[in-house]
Design brief:
The protein is of the alpha/beta class. The chain has a single domain, classed as Vaccinia Virus protein VP39 (Rossmann fold), CATH 3.40.50. Helix content is 40%, strand content 23%. It is built from 11 helices and 7 strands. A 7-stranded mixed β-sheet has the order 3-2-1-4-5-7-6, with helices on both faces. It starts with 11 loop residues before the first helix and ends with a strand. The model has no long low-confidence stretch (mean pLDDT 92). The chain binds S-adenosylmethionine (SAM). S-adenosylmethionine binds next to loops.
């Protein structure tokens, strides 16, 4: 696959410059879930917080924290008095995440650090828990990153990794492939899907357990779907004609679906413990 933002072909400076300097492109994708997600499902961030099963007062690293939505929207799922280090290789994301977690007015301590998951500026055994949410598909070598996360965890400390399941949101990616070419599947899940995450983590951590949550989107706006599919490659580099083609394909799919495109999704967590 030729996608410079995920896995072995990753180009870190392009990823930072074109996708994650701030949260705008991530926002285009998140909007699809916020606006069109099934309302009776669990809130993703509260579910993530609960599944991580942290202890009160734990010293926690969130690497690839993005704008820190987990610490705002998910706060009801976390125990009291957490000491947070929010880290990302994008300074704009770190700034937004610190603001989000501080505004939540719930955590004992919040600190931001600009850092790359593959070379963390922390001593061995610095944290009781590390979270890496929807970010390990961006790194050139997930095993290197996971070993680095194991290094900074105390023995018996918790690692919680979230990602998309293989086969996630297939109708969305089929539309993208029809307009822009490339694979008709979720590039993140192709590189670091839930089952691959579990297999890699079983070789590095103890008591590894995978959990997942299913959901649905019923997308009624062609504009919102086009915005999401042009927020990452190959759509972010597409010319006007290809984007117009996607718009027409999407409008036709919405009409064929009786006013909405139904998109099933599955994402989840792999949780384990650093060896004692
Ligand atoms: C899809 S977002 C996920 C944000 C957040 N964890 C969430 O689940 O909402 C991926 C984040 O990982 C960050 N990232 C990508 N590669 C990274 C790396 N090598 N080291 C640290 N952060 C990275 C990006 O800047 C971005 O904020």
């Amino acid at each position: 696959m030729n996608n410079p933002t995920v896995g072995a072909g990753v180009n870190p400076s392009e990823l930072l410059d074109r996708q994650y300097r701030d949260s705008k492109k991530l926002e285009a994708r998140a909007n699809l879930h916020r606006r069109y997600g099934r309302s009776d499902g669990p809130d993703w961030f509260v579910w993530t917080a609960q599944q991580a099963n942290l202890s009160a007062g734990a010293k926690v690293l969130d690497i690839g924290c993005g704008p820190g939505w987990l610490w705002g929207a998910g706060k009801a799922g976390f125990p009291a008095d957490l000491d947070l280090t929010l880290a990302d290789f994008s300074p704009g994301m770190v700034e937004a995440a610190v603001k989000q977690a501080t505004t939540a007015d719930y955590y004992a301590h919040v600190e931001g650090v600009v850092a790359d998951v593959s070379h963390l500026p922390f001593a061995d055994a610095s944290f009781d828990a590390v979270l890496a949410c929807h970010m390990l598909y961006h790194v050139p070598d997930a095993t290197v990153a996971l070993k680095e996360l194991r290094r900074v965890l105390r023995p018996g400390g918790i690692i919680a990794v979230t990602t998309n399941a293989e086969g996630n949101m297939a109708p969305l990616y089929a539309l993208g492939a029809a307009a822009f070419g490339g694979a008709a599947s979720d590039p993140a899940a192709d590189i670091f899907g839930l089952h691959r995450a579990k297999a890699l983590m079983e070789g590095l951590f103890d008591d590894v357990v995978m959990t997942s949550v299913d959901g649905d989107l019923n997308v009624t706006s062609a504009e919102d779907l086009v915005l999401a599919l042009t927020s990452f490659p190959p759509g972010q580099d597409a010319d006007d004609a290809a984007v117009a083609h996607l718009y027409e394909l999407t409008k036709a799919a919405i009409a064929a679906g009786g006013g909405a495109i139904h998109i099933p999704k599955t994402q989840g967590m792999v949780r384990g413990l650093a060896p004692r």
